[in-house]
Design a protein that fits this description.
Shape of chain A: elongated
CATH class of chain A: Mainly Alpha
Strand content of chain A: under 5%
Structural class of chain A: mainly alpha
Strand order of the largest sheet of chain A: 1-2
Largest sheet of chain A: 2 strands, antiparallel
Radius of gyration of chain A: 18 Å
CATH topology of chain A: Four Helix Bundle (Hemerythrin (Met), subunit A)
Order of helices and strands of chain A: HHHHHHHHEEH
Mean pLDDT of chain A: 97
Oligomer: homodimer
Number of helices of chain A: 9
Number of strands of chain A: 2
Distance between the termini of chain A: 26 Å
Number of domains of chain A: 1
Largest interface: A-B, 57 and 56 residues
CATH superfamily of chain A: dinb family like domain
CATH architecture of chain A: Up-down Bundle
């Protein structure tokens, strides 16, 4: 299958529900434990997704759609959540993400994006030209990648408890 | 964190909701496309999870808890879903999984499992002795592993559409 705006939106609009069903109401150990070292916990990942909604996807889409002279995206801060999520509960973050995503999808829809628009380009600070189609595809894959990551981080909490079953669970070695 | 029956149940009981929010109502292309070759689509994976509820987890837990002479588990059929899911819709499979999981968790709770019970053993046909603690930990990690797999399978549908962003999305190479 290849990129289609309606089908991409099917994923983007359900991510808040997926994250809520995956995390809301879980014990703190599930929420705040990471994969060791500098890796991210589920709590950290939701903060990262919020920062993306605030500073990345739709802002970059608007730059890409614009005819302005400055088409280079501002670099994304991958560590912003460690400051921004401080003092908040997971439940607050899930609500914040839900509200931001909803607002961004309303903005996206208001653009009435055409096939021609999908070929418009913006400039990524690291690798240069990227089309709107590529940016929106990445938004979808990025959501799904972080849902997979959250599942993996939680699965790994039982890495040792599974004992001899470990060989049947490739997720524990990723 | 290490295995705890209540915290394990927190995950097991929410998996039907997670799968529903992840998949219910999606276009067929998201549901029936796999990662190529003999890999599984999201539809196949739900069938596999149903077969586990029917023939694996609680049945093996009951064998493990029993004092009967025969403690060897029946080998699990990893391909049963290709026959069993035929003619069913994804929505039917999600409901079937939800009902089976609910029934199995009621059975699990009815056992009033003690710490001593968690050390009881059954015999896996491939690797031998395994405790109830290991079996139940595996049930949890197996759920999370397949949620991650479904997310990955869907993310990979945009493997080429993301263009130069591919290097930022490790999920696409897993």
């Amino acid at each position: 299958m290849s990129f289609n705006l309606n089908k991409a939106t099917e994923i983007l609009e359900r991510t808040p529900d997926v994250l809520t069903s995956l995390l809301e109401g879980l014990s703190d150990e599930w929420i705040y434990t990471n994969e060791g070292g500098e890796t991210w916990s589920p709590f950290d990942i939701i903060g990262h997704l919020i920062h993306g909604e605030k500073t990345d996807w739709m802002i970059r889409a608007e730059i890409t759609l614009s005819d302005g002279p400055e088409k280079t995206f501002t670099p994304f801060d991958r560590f912003a959540q460690f400051e921004e999520s401080k003092g908040k509960t997971l439940s607050q973050l899930l609500t914040e993400f839900r509200d931001l995503r909803k607002k961004n999808l309303i903005t996206l829809q208001s653009k009435n994006i055409t096939d021609e628009d999908l070929d418009k380009t913006g400039i990524h600070p690291a690798f240069g030209d990227t089309t709107l189609r590529q940016l929106l595809s990445t938004w979808v894959a990025h959501d799904l990648g972080h849902i997979a990551q959250i599942s993996r981080v939680m699965a790994k909490q039982y890495k040792y408890d599974v004992g001899p079953w470990k060989n049947y669970l490739p997720i524990l070695d990723r």
